[in-house]
Amino acid sequence: MTIQADLSDGYAPGGAPGPGAPTPGPADPPPTHPLYSRLDPRCLPPRPHRAPPRPHRAPPRPHRAPRRAPVPVPPLRLTPVALRRALAGGAVPVVGLWLVQAEPSMRLDALFATLAHLSGLLAGYGILVMLLLMARVPAVEHGVGADLLARWHARGGRHVLTLCLAHTVFALCGYAAHTGTDVLGAALGLLGYPGLAAATVGTVLLAGVGVTSARTVRRRVRHETWRAVHLLTYVGAGLAFAHQLSGPDLAGGPVAVWLWALLHTTVGTLLVWYRLVVPVRQALRHSLRVTEVRTEGPDVVSVVMQGLGLDALRAEPGQFFRWRFLHRRLWRTALPFSLSAPVRDDTLRITVKACGDHTRRIRRLRPGVRVLATGPFGALTAHRRTRRKVLLLAGGVGITPMRALFETLPGGPGDLTLLYRAGDAAQLVLREELERIAAARGAALHYLLGPSDGPFDPLAPRALRHLVPDLVEHDVYLCGPPGMSRAAAAALERAGVPADRIHSEQFTF
């Protein structure tokens, strides 16, 4: 379905006023006095000759440059490539610290001790990286994207656990070889040292976090339980830091200890500021409350919230917040939902589909409920755009960020195309708004309806090229369920769209 724009503007051609223009008023009075208009100028006495008055010159005023409106400073964004390079570059001095302390030796105990030091330093640095990725620093969140950060965090967590276990095994083997005892005896001997006992507890806590984060386990535990266990990461990181300060890993001197402590302090400050101070400050400043909950479709509602000074949030279309509704059985969980409309008149709106216990309870919210919103997060915004033409591809309730982008992305008639994938017409959300936006902007809007297991795939490469003939000239914004997003991204690449012009963000992560 393609919606064309209505470009009539109500004015007559050639600049003439239309039927609604105001009628001109009466003519202005003539500049000559009415008495002189009735006299013959030849009968009037001559005017006396007077010297022209000397013009009064005002003192010169100092030249002032015209004031210019302040140009808004664009938010700082760190690209994924820059962040990856920075994190990899940070590991170089860590390895350098190990090289400075390494003592070449062919003895078995010395070899195990050297490997234990290297794996311990890298594990400590890896823990800091994992905490930094989840610190919700705006420059990182808005440049990399919360979904990509979450995947990096999950993948990096497995590597950190491997390094922690390797450090434990190498330390046990080295101590056993040095004392001439077996591994069990070495373990009991090492537990007698307070620093090593703390490190053991920290390792156990980190391993428990890793086990509950495994995909098969996480599906079976409640989100609140997983989150509570995940908070033990901070305890494990603190115990690991204490072990490193008291152990031989930082035996290179006070400078190494000072730099290591400074690195931990920096990451800890970022965590406290962006995960605790900023959310509390936003809650006190904006005083966000629910004003309306309206039904948009089967099991789909829009929640409208209003606050104070919401422009200060600098929320962009395509981004999301983590919402905590201070309502019974909802206040304990922060739920991530995208904005389904641009921020205007100190109003925020999200559109939610009931697909779990918490989302079903949102339908029962009442006006006046207090809301704590943390954010904005996400990188699926206009700054990723590199082409004049843009294709927005949405699936299911993933239409919510696409609807906001559909309204706000700059472009003329024919520059924007929206493809909306759904099982049937009843599942289309915000349909009237989408059609109104398409008509006003001269944009193309196509509904791709049908079951996902049907004989015809509307997201096949040939089907996409048929709907969008110049597809390879477009930037593509993609949002939908994980399976649909992966299939659509693969089809777009087969249709000729470069991977770096497919901008996606997982609907659930």
Automatic annotation (TrEMBL):
Localisation per UniProt entry: Membrane
Key word ATP-binding present: no
Keywords associated with the record: 2Fe-2S, FAD, Flavoprotein, Iron, Iron-sulfur, Membrane, Metal-binding, Oxidoreductase, Transmembrane, Transmembrane helix
Gene3D superfamilies: Nucleotide-binding domain of ferredoxin-NADP reductase (FNR) module, Translation factors
InterPro entries for this protein: FAD-bd_FR_type, Fe3_Rdtase_TM_dom, FNR_nucleotide-bd, MRET, OxRdtase_FAD/NAD-bd, Riboflavin_synthase-like_b-brl
Listed transmembrane segments: 82-100, 112-135, 156-177, 183-207, 228-245, 257-277
Source species: Streptomyces caniferus
PROSITE patterns, per the entry: FAD_FR (PS51384)
FAD-binding FR-type domain segment(s): 283-383
Start and end residues of each stretch annotated as Disordered: 1-72
Cofactor(s) required for function per UniProt: FAD
Biased composition (Pro residues): 19-33
Name listed for the protein in its UniProt record: Ferredoxin reductase family protein
PANTHER family: 1,2-PHENYLACETYL-COA EPOXIDASE, SUBUNIT E (PTHR47354:SF8), NADH OXIDOREDUCTASE HCR (PTHR47354)
SUPFAM superfamilies the UniProt entry points to: Ferredoxin reductase-like, C-terminal NADP-linked domain (SSF52343), Riboflavin synthase domain-like (SSF63380)
Topology of this chain in the membrane: Multi-pass membrane protein
Biased composition (Basic residues): 47-67
Recorded superkingdom: Bacteria
Keyword Nucleotide-binding: no
Pfam families with a match to the protein in the record: Ferric_reduct (PF01794), NAD_binding_1 (PF00175)
